[in-house]
Specification:
Distance between the termini: 47 Å
Number of helices: 13
Order of helices and strands: EHEHEHEEHEHHEEHHEEHHHHH
CATH architecture of the largest domain: Alpha-Beta Complex
CATH topology of the largest domain: Spore Coat Polysaccharide Biosynthesis Protein SpsA, Chain A
Strand content: 5-15%
Structural class: alpha/beta
């Protein structure tokens, strides 16, 4: 069936057998007219049943499957955009579930004057752990209206603006969504967060270890993006927090040595307090704003883990 889609939904994927079916099923149940959108799945060399599961939905969706191996997620999204026909590009990740009004609401928001990007930070699954609830549970409500960026797994924009700013930067591995939104804002457009566009992220970290690894991964190219975008890029505070954490760890190491040499715990104690204190203060501020003081300890633990992960990413930046 030939269609003239208004929206092209672009989904990058690699070995997403466990979630791609649920993702596509959520698109089948959109309240947007089926003939008004197409779905483009761009596969990065999956070795599992991702493509088989996706093709099983081809009778219910106007689905196109593209394949390109060994590239970054930005290149997958750009490839999907280059093969799309819609006047609106809607980027969705394979481990995300779209609400039924996703396209209806999203296309309305980006049609407003001056809006370049619309999207939302992720909702968490209903059965999420304390890690996900404390760190991610309030993001949708807190990050709305004009904001610096939205994640690439829930991002909509007009094709004309996508082409104007040059699409995603295919040379970076992470931070590509933040970097794109920064260029959109530099071009004079707003980035709008709207809770009604929020998708459920099945890949939300549920353990402390998973959270730490996720932050390290997201920070992989943060230093490079920051260097290229001085002074406008929005990730300076996380970088400084990571640097501060590294300095505190140096103090902790020095304190351990001081115990051996001088039999005094003062340096270690001071360094440990300095390591934890900013996390405690940041967590207290969040708890006061959210009126959820029961989250104070979980958020403090997560802020410390966040600082450690950012510091770990900074150490790795010198090797790239």
């Amino acid at each position: 069936m030939n269609i003239d889609p208004h929206v092209s939904i672009i989904i990058p994927a690699r070995n997403e057998e466990a979630v791609i079916g649920s993702c596509l099923d959520s698109l089948i149940h959109l309240d947007f007219p089926r003939e008004r959108f197409e779905v483009i799945l761009v596969d990065n060399g999956s070795s599992d049943r991702t493509l088989e599961v996706a093709r099983a939905r081809s009778e219910s969706l106007h689905l196109t499957i593209l394949q390109k191996s060994g590239v970054r997620i930005s290149a997958l999204r750009n490839l999907g955009a280059s093969h799309s026909r819609g006047r609106v590009l809607a980027f969705l990740d394979a481990d995300c579930l779209a609400p039924s009004n996703w396209l209806t609401r999203g296309t309305h928001v980006i049609s407003q004057p001056g809006v370049g990007v619309a999207g939302a930070h992720y909702r968490i699954p209903e059965d999420s752990s304390w890690v996900a609830q404390a760190w991610y549970g309030d993001e949708v409500a807190e990050k709305q209206g004009p904001i610096p960026w939205v994640p690439g797994g829930d991002l909509m924009m007009a094709r004309a603006i996508f082409d104007e700013v040059g699409g995603f930067d295919a040379t970076i591995q992470t931070n590509e969504d933040c970097e794109l939104c920064d260029r959109v804002r530099e071009a004079g457009y707003q980035v709008i967060g709207d809770p009604l566009i929020a998708v459920t992220h099945l890949g939300t970290p549920q353990t402390l270890g998973g959270f730490y690894r996720k932050v390290v991964w997201h920070a992989t190219d943060a230093v490079r993006v920051f260097r290229n975008k001085l002074p406008r890029i929005t990730n300076v505070r996380p970088l400084l927090f990571g640097l501060y954490t590294l300095l505190c760890l140096v103090g902790v190491a020095a304190g351990l040595g001081w115990i051996v040499l001088r039999q005094t715990w003062a340096v270690l104690a001071i360094s440990a307090v300095l390591l934890v204190l900013p996390s405690l203060l940041l967590s207290a501020r969040l708890c006061a704003r959210r009126k959820k003081w029961a989250q104070l300890l979980p958020l403090t633990v997560l802020h410390v883990a966040y600082g450690l992960a950012r510091g770990r990413a900074l150490l790795g930046a010198g090797t790239r």
